[in-house]
Every structure is written in structure tokens, then in C-alpha cells.
Amino acid sequence: MSDTHISDGEHEDPSRRDFIYISTAAAAAVGAGSLAWPLVSQMSAASDTRAAGSIEIDVSKIEEGQQLKVLWRGKPVFVRYRTQKEIDAADAVEIDGLRDPETDEARFRPAFDGKIHKNILVMVGVCTHFGCIPVGEAGDFDGWYCPCHGSHYDTSGRIRKGPAPKNMVIPEYTYISDTVIKVG
Amino acid sequence: MGIKFMKTLIVGATLALGGLGVANVATASDAGGTHKLEHQKWGFNGMFGTYDRAAMQRGYQVYREVCASCHALEHLSFRHLADKGAPFYNADTPNPNDNDVVKAFAKDWSIEAIDQDTGDIIDRPGIPADKFPLIFPNAIAAAASNGGAIPPDLSLITKSRTGGADYLYAILTGYHEAPHDFHVADGTYYNTAFDGNQIKMAAPLSDELIEYSPYMVAGEHGAEPHEVAAPVATTDQMARDIVEFLTWAGDPHMEARKRIGLATFLYLFIFALLLFLTYKTVWRNVKH
Amino acid sequence: MSGPSTYEPKYAAAKWMDKRLPIIRMGVDFMGFPSPRNLNYWYAFGGILSLCLMSQILTGIILAMHYTPHVDMAFDSVQRIRRDVPFGWLLQSMHAVGASMFFLAVYIHMFRGLFYGSYKAPRELLWIIGCAIYLAMMATGFLGYTLPWGQMSFWGATVITGFFGAIPFVGESLQQWLLGGYSVGNPTLQRFFSLHYLLPFVIAALVALHVWAVHHVGQNNPIGIDVKTKEDTLPFHPFYTMKDGFAIAVFLMIFALFVFYLPDALGHADNYQRADPMKTPPHIVPEWYFLPFYAILRAVPDKLLGIILMFGAIVVLFVLPWLDTAKVRSMRFRPTTRRFFYIFLFMCFILGWCGGNSPDDLAFTFGHKNVMVDGHEVSEAIGMTFKTLSRIGTIYYFGFFLFLLPVLGWIEKTKKLPDSITKAIHDGEA
Q: Which domains, from first to last, does chain B contain?
């Protein structure tokens, strides 16, 4: 049997052998990779979850100085009809000194008529520190105040004081009529 | 040894598949009552079978205008109609929630909801994310309005019945005059495909019961959208269309499944061949 | 068998590791495990089964992320998996078909062990651990089939848990304890889910023991004689990793055929109907892999006796090493036993066929006779019912283990065994 071990393999082409080994290993890697894709991507949001990712809000019912809180993607969205005083206060802020510099103007999307109406503020009501929900008409700037770790936001939802790093997030939204906005 | 093993494997597989075949025939003859289930030609059968988009769209119309008075589509949402591979998919609005046709369909149904101001239960027009509403609030109500028989949910009807699409087609076209010596009980109808031949559902389809609207087919690969003339809504045509639609409803990922299946097989053939060559190379000097 | 380790760490890091936790050494020795040179493709099913177990655990963990074990939501959550979860249709199909593939592989593995006498000394414990794995697989398969909460799930669970009700005196309270109520309901579903998640890890632990045992006593081989010299063996890697790898690829094609093209062929249409405690499906049949046992159960008119026989059919496997009295392992050298083995294999298929059909239906038709029904003369088929056929199968099943194997072991004149594996290969006998 030892003779069979060696003799018939002597004129074997080693490069052909390596080619077979390498292609097999490559094919196995490709297979494992393609199999990994469904195994990993199954954890991303399912299509029913994604379908529930956009909502329509009728803003006509909100009165001046009032705020609507709507659940969107598991988080509250604040829709605030700001008073003129609040708008003026937000406008008066010096941008350069802000932690997350942003004009009040930049925190609005054009309404159905194509203009910016700064009275309706749409904002994800989540503190950018660790995700608590800030309290309205509170804090040093009469905007929002987060009770968890003491972050103060102004009437535009910008961070002014406290540990939070960013302004409160403005979600993707559009006006689909004069009074209805679609978030998401 | 390899060839012998292959032979054994092939014999075994044939035996096993033969056994499956026998089992299938046996159950099919049980479910079909006295009527032998006829196999229809469906475009979705076979390894490369796909759904006929136009037929599915007509089928949805049949469901909406005929079946939906009693039967629910429990597991479907409106948005499913606009998914890739679904009847109303539109490549311009790949997000099913933005599909205009489906938005219009959804609006056409009223959905129970809670008024955000008063907390009252109200009806609002549907949106694509909504599920198809239940037709009856519960099974008791369903049975009470239908002579004691609960109209089955249709979203899995072709999967939950032995014979699948063929069986559904046979039921829908199985209404005939009962033989003179056959007693049909009150509240039931003679149907050749139904077990026991007496079904509580009256013949749902009749020639030209509805009028098919012509429909637009979205142009693929940059082509212009074009209108397709609708066929006459004969009983047979409607039965075929609703079967096409409901088969999709039960198995919406069938096309993707077969596509990925083909790729998997191509891969496995190459991989098996490579492994065989590797195996032979590794063993080349070993007598065994 | 495995002998002293031949691993020599080359790099400093490997040496450091080897002194503290010789895990690399373990892996190297494991892969280099000397295996008989003459293993054929039937020996690839051990590897195939490991793959099946891994695949089931992986897809199962994933499904558990999306599944809801509640009677009102279980059925819908499975539909959600199949419709809305990315690739959910694929993973659910892989898991459901995977169960069937697992059993297909385990049956081939067991029949292989039977044929080559792999349960004989010193491999009795190896075989018994294997039987325990099989038993745990059956339990897992049954529990898992309940989870989709279709009609077959519900009624299958009702029937199987009903077995325990047949036990004298304690049966009824035992059954209630199992179900967590008077009938199959939400408490049942939740505990079944919990146990279905647990058992695969028990199986994995048993598999570890099984592999340990096989590495201790060494693999059996088609001619069933012991390995005598190093010449008789080859290192497991690369020789059998590559051979098994090829077999696995072929097996995966069968797997893929079902997953992609026949996903419902191995299931029941009734299980696409939501469980309804008020309506029993016309034919309750278990999954195909339980059919032979179901046939044995129904072959006997007495409830308790049927259950005893059904469990006995599995218990008998555990004591097989002491039932077979033959000194020769492989049936290649036992021509008479081999014939009876083939009949046994055939009978298992027959029992499976019986299990899938109504006991009073005719399996074979011999002819017709005319009988009077309501004053009309009607032609009625006469033949053998499935009940009769399953009795024949049951008698043979037990007869094979309890009578044929012990007796044939004493009286059969076996063929002459080769001197060694290497010699047999040389003479073309292996």
C-alpha cells in the first residue's frame, strides 16, 4: 500500500492542485458571505414597521401657544404653535455663541405655499443627551427643559445650557396641504 | 464506492419522492369529494413560474367587488399590494406607502380608529399601512350572517387547502345543476368540487357580474406606461384572475424565492464540483 | 485510540497559549483524528447532522426574535415573519424544512449504524447517546410543530399529550400538569416555546458526548473490523473533511430543492389554518418523520397498549447492543441478517405509509364483491386495510429486534472477515 501512496502522484501538476484548493476555499467564502446577508439583515426593520414610519398631522387644530404631542416611530413629535414672543426670542439669539449653531429659520421646512412659516415648529421631542422627553415652557430660556440631567433648550429647541450636545432634531416632514404635514 | 453510493441515493430519493407522490394523490382524492381535481395550467407553477400582473390586478377587482362582502384578507395590508412583485408595484414609487393606486384603494375602505380628541371609535379612510379590515367583527357574527358557515380568510386560501390553486378554481367553477337523485339541503348549493358536494356559499361568480376596468401597466426599463384592454369578465376568467391574485396573496415572495433558489442551485453545483475535485485531489494517492 | 498528541506549537503566542489553555492543541488533534481508510459516503451523515443542528439553532434563534408565543398572536406572527421580516420567508422555510432534513439525515445515520453494527462493543454507549439524541430530536420536533399554531399544530399537540392521559391512575393529572390546563391552550404554547428553545442545547450537549465517545472508541467502518495499525487510518482532515464536504454540498442541494421549490411539500395544508379548538381536521397526521410510530400506535386497538408499543419501538433501540448476539459487526459478512435487514428497512417505509393513511382504508385491493346498500346492489372493493398492514409491520419491527437479531447471531454462519482494513482495501473487499 505504501507504493500506491507515492507513485501515481509524481507527475501531478502542483499549480493545478493549488488552483482547485484556492477556488474551493473562495467558493466556500462566497457561500458563507451570501448566507450571512439574510441572517444579518433579518434584524433590520420589517416592512410593517417601516410602513408605520410616516404619519400625517393636522396642524389646524392647534391654537397659538399650544403644543401637540404625537407618537412617531416610537418617539414623541412636538408640534408647537409658537407665540410671536417666542419667535422673537428665538430670532434674537446670537448664533455664534451656540453649542450647536443653527438659525431659527433653518429649523423649518417650507409650507404648502412654498414659504417658511415660523409659527409651527415641528421637532422630535427627545433630549439629545440621553433620550428623555423635555418639559415644555420651562427652563432658563422658556423653551424646553429636560428633567433628567438638566438641559435647557430655547424656544427654537436649541440647546443652550446643560449636558446635551445638540439641538433637538427636526424630523423629515413636508406640508401635503395648507394644514396637514406628513412626518417621515 | 462513489458510484454505488450515488445509485443507492438515487434509488432512495426516487422511493421517497414516489412515496410523497402517493401521499399527495391519496389526500387530493380525499379532499376533492366525488369530483376529481383537474389540474389547470398556471403561469406561477414550475421552477421558473411567475405571476401574471394583469391577471392579479383583475383578481384584486374581483376580490374588492365580489369576495370582500364576506371574506377577509387577514394577513394583508394595503401596502402589500404595492410591494415589489405585487400586483400594483410601481418602480417610480418603490415605497409602497407612496403608491398612488394603492393609496386610492386604501382610501376606499373605512378603517376603525380612535378619535385622537374624543377617544371615540370612529371610521376613517384607510392608508396603505393599514391591514385589510375584517369583514365580520368576530367568528360568531360571521357564522350568524352566513347560515352557520364562517367564510374563510382568503389571504392563505390557496395554501391552506389541499390542491391549492386548482382546488380554489374547481370550487369557483364547480356550481352545477345537482343530479336528480341528489338531495341538496336548504341553505346549501351543489358544488362538484366541495367535500360532500353541498356548500353554503352561493355561486359567487356569474358571467359579466362585474366589468373589468382597463388598466395601466407601468413601463419597465424606461418604456412608456401603456393601457391594457381588459378581457370580458366571464365566470372562468374571473375565477382564474381571483386565483392568480389569491395565490400571490398566500405566497407573495414566490418570485424572489425561485430567483434566489436558482442562484443557490447554480452556486451549489459549482461548489459541489469544486469540493469533489478537491476531495479527489486530496485522495489522489490513497487507495481506498 | 487517538494516541498522544502530535501538535507542536510553532509560534511564541501559540506556545504561550498551549501552556495555559491547550485549545489549539485540542482543535488540531480533533481535526487530525485517525479515521479508518475505508469509510464510505454513508459515514458523511455525522457531519451532515452537525450542520443540520447548527442550521436549526441559528435559524431558530432568529425566528425567536420575531415570533410571539401567544395563542392570539402566534399564527399571525409567523405570517408576519413570512411576509414582512426581511428574508423571513427564507429563514422560516429553512427552519421548517430543516427539521425534515435533520430527520432524513438522522434516519440514514441510524440505518447505517444498524447495517454496519456500529452499536456493538465497544460502541454501546455511543449508540445509546445517539438514541438519546434521537429522542430529544423527536421531542424538539414535536414541540416546534406546535408553535405556528395552525390546525395540525393544535390537534397534533392535543393527540400527543393525550398519550399521557392513558397512563393508569396518574394519567389525567399528569396531562393537566403538562398542558397547564384542561386542554391545549396559552400556557401550553408558552411552555412548549420555552422547551423548544431549550432542547436543542441539550441536543448539542449530547452531541458533544456522542463525538467524545466516537473519538474515544474510534469510528466503526464498513467492514466492521478494528483498526490494527496506523496504515489502516487517515487523518480526519483533510481526507474526510473534503469527502464529507462534498457529501454536504450534495445534501444541501436536496435541502435547497425543498426550501426554494417545494416549501410546503413536507407539511400539511391544514397548518395554514389558524388553530380552532372547535373543529378537528378530517385527518390528523403527524409530520412524516413520526409516521412509522404513529402507525404502530394505531395498529393496536387498546389505547394504553398502543402507546406502550409506540414508546417500546424507541426503547428497543436503546437495548439493541445487547439484543444482537452476533460477534461480527458489519452485515456485509452476515448474508442472512442482511436480507432480514433489508426487509426491516422496507417495513419501516410500509409503516410510514400506513401512518399517513386512515387505518380502515384499503392499502391493497384484491377484488370486488357486490353488497346490498339501501336496496341497491353496490360493488365494494375488498383488500387489505392499512390497519392490517401496520400490524404486519409492527410485528416485523419488534420481531426483527427481539427475535431475529438474537437468534441469527447464534445460528448464522458469517463470511470470513478480512485480516485488516488495509488488506481488505488491497483485495478490493472494502
A: 1-23+257-288 (no CATH), 27-76+132-250 (1.10.760.10)
- Is C372 touching B (CB cutoff 8 A)? no
**Average pLDDT over all residues of chain C:** 94
CA nearest to C237 within chain B:
B282
In angstroms, the CA B278 to CA A47 distance is 43
Exposure letters C27-43 (e unless 16+ CB within 10 A, then b): ebbeebbbbbbbbbbbb
How many residues would you count in chain C? 430
Report yes or no: B239 and B187 within 8 Å, Cβ to Cβ. no
Query: Model's pTM, two decimal places?
Result: 0.89
Q: Would you give the DSSP letter of residue A155?
A: T
Q: Report the distance separating Cα C349 and Cα C334, nearest Å.
A: 23
Q: What pLDDT, in 10s, does the model give residues A26-47? A: 999 999 999 999 999 999 989 8
Cis peptide before C9 (omega within 30 of 0): no
DSSP H helices, B67-163, are: 100-107, 139-145, 157-160
Measure CA of the first residue to CA of the last residue in chain C; give whole Å: 21
Cα dihedral C214, C215, C221, C227 sign: negative
Q: Name which of A82, A144, A72 is nearest A116 in CA terms.
A: A82
Set of chain C residues whose Cβ sits within 8 Å of the Cβ of B15: 349
Give the CATH fold of the A48-183 domain: Rieske Iron-sulfur Protein (2.102.10)
Strand residues in chain B grouped as ranges (E): 110-114, 121-125, 189-190, 198-199, 215-217, 226-228
What Cα–Cα distance (Å) separates residue A98 from each residue in A74, A158, B113, B226, C418? 29, 8, 43, 56, 90
- For the record, the C-alpha cell of B288 comes out as 481506498
Of B252 and A180, the one with more pLDDT: B252
On whether the CB atoms of residues C175 and C165 are closer than 8 A, the answer is yes
Test mutation, B29, B75, B161, chain C, max C CBs within 10 A = B75
Paired with B131 in beta bridges are B77
**Stretch 5-34 of chain B: residues touching chain C, C-beta under 8 Å:** 5, 9, 13, 15, 19-20, 22-23, 26-27, 30
DSSP structure string for C4-68? S------SHHHHHHHHH-THHHHHHHHHT-EEETT--GGGGHHHHHHHHHHHHHHHHHHHHHH--
Query: ipTM score of the complex?
Result: 0.91
Query: What is d(CA C357, CA A45) in angstroms, rounded to the nearest whole number?
Result: 44
Domains of chain A, by residue range, sit at 14-44, 48-183
Cβ-based contacts of A20 with chain B (< 8 Å): 274, 277-278, 281
* Percent of chain B with pLDDT strictly greater than 90: 64
Q: What is the distance between the terminal CA atoms of chain A, rounded to a whole angstrom?
A: 74
Closest in A1, A41, A48 to C87, CB measured: A41
Please tell me the distance from the alpha carbon of residue C245 to that of residue B271, in angstroms, as a whole number: 10
Contact B274 A23 (CB under 8 A): yes
Supply the pLDDT for residue C93.
Answer: 97
Mark yes or no for CB contact B283/C239 under 8 Å. yes
**Cα–Cα distance between C383 and C84 in angstroms, integer?**
50
What are the grid coordinates assigned to C71, written together? 395563542
Q: At what angle do helices C291-299 and C303-318 cross, to 10 degrees?
A: 130
One DSSP character per residue, C81-98 reads HHHTSTTHHHHHHHHHHH
Residue with C-alpha cell 433628567?
A148
DSSP class of residue C237 equals I
Cell numbers found for residue A114: 412654498
- Rounded distance, CA A118 to CA C216, Å? 79
The whole-angstrom separation of Cα C242 and Cα B279 is: 5
Q: Note whether C313 and C388 are within 8 A (CB).
A: no
Type of residue at C392: I
Q: Which residues of A are catalytic?
A: 149
The CA distance from C293 to C314, in Å, is 9
Task: Using DSSP, state whether A119 is helix, strand or coil.
Answer: coil
